[in-house]
């Protein structure tokens, strides 16, 4: 994904198609810890399990499209989710990258309680950056992507394991979407800027919905959710077009004890998978993404698109905070 200090043309495209959400910061109204939520039957998110799911992906090596590691990791994800009892939807397609390369990509969806009419879409990307374009060492080589790629997927795999052990009942279903080709965007030093070179998988799926005619009540995107010391601010596009989803997620985090990880703080808008899900699929989606305002680029951490994005920075406590929050949102949905 890339920085985007304004929402660009998204507002014009969506003004007539999405219901208006009041754009607000909750900073003024939430200065104290929220009262504890009423007891609900929500299973414990296992951070050790999620950590191992992250490590297993990283063990394949960089998951760059058109490489054996990418193919092998995709096969592993499909096999694992199938083993967790999901109804699988695999969307194979070819996309042209900014440099003219044709990329063989797969979006992977795992559905739970597929006959339910009310659906929640949880998403992450499973590919990794093909270049370390922010690094001074070996900038043309691919990164491991432990945080940027594997962490969000690791959380979703653990949620899938919990959904198999604790089946959803009633008319609420959950769809786990693993987008491909998110991080093959144009580097800043790669010639004249081209539009829409990032998030290739979410662009394709949002214009070619699978299952056909798919919709969801709302969505939550997980991106870079595993690094030690992460804090997740309320990203501008999410606040603008999915304000109620942002409110639900951040309030839940405060209610169950993770306010340190989910401060009521605003962050600038960025181009990420949720951008295209909102724009083309008309699904309100909030982006849970770590925010580092003191970093050189003003948003992403010091290991972003660098070779330091390894298992050394992955923290079980961060995985737990994100995973338990999202699992609580899902399991308490009515």
TrEMBL record:
Domain (Peptidase M28): residue spans on this chain: 107-330
UniProt entry tagged with the keyword Repressor: no
Lineage: superkingdom: Bacteria
Signal peptide annotation: 1-22
Keywords: Acyltransferase, Signal, Transferase
Keyword Signal: yes
One Pfam match: Peptidase_M28
Record's protein name: M28 family peptidase
Taxonomic source organism: Rufibacter glacialis
């Amino acid at each position: 994904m890339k920085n985007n200090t304004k929402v660009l043309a998204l507002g014009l495209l969506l003004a007539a198609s999405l219901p208006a959400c009041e754009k607000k910061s909750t900073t003024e109204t939430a200065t104290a810890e929220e009262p504890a939520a009423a007891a609900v039957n929500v299973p414990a998110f296992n951070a050790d399990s999620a950590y191992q799911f992250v490590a297993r992906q990283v063990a394949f090596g960089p998951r760059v499209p058109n490489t054996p590691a990418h193919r092998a990791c995709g096969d592993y994800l499909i096999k694992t989710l199938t083993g967790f009892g999901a109804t699988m939807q695999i969307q194979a397609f070819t996309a042209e990258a900014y440099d003219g390369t044709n990329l063989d990509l797969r979006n992977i969806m795992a559905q739970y309680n597929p006959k339910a009419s009310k659906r929640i879409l949880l998403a992450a990307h499973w590919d990794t950056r093909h270049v370390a374009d922010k690094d001074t060492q070996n900038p043309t080589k691919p990164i491991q992507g432990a945080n940027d790629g594997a962490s969000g997927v690791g959380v979703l795999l653990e949620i899938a394991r919990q959904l198999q052990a604790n089946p959803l009942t009633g008319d609420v279903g959950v769809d786990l979407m693993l987008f491909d080709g998110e991080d093959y965007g144009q580097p800043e030093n790669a010639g004249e800027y081209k539009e829409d070179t990032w998030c290739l998988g979410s662009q394709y799926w949002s214009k070619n919905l699978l299952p056909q005619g798919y919709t969801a009540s709302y969505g939550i995107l997980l991106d870079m959710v595993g690094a030690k010391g992460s804090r997740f601010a309320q990203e501008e596009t999410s606040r603008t077009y999915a304000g109620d989803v942002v409110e639900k997620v951040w309030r839940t985090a405060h209610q169950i004890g993770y306010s340190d990880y989910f401060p009521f703080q605003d962050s600038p808008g960025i181009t990420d998978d949720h951008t295209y899900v909102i724009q083309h699929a008309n699904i309100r989606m909030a982006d849970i993404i770590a925010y580092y305002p003191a970093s050189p680029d003003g948003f992403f951490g010091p290991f972003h698109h660098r070779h330091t994005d390894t298992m050394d920075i992955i923290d079980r406590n961060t995985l737990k905070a994100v995973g338990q929050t999202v699992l609580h949102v899902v399991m308490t949905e009515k």
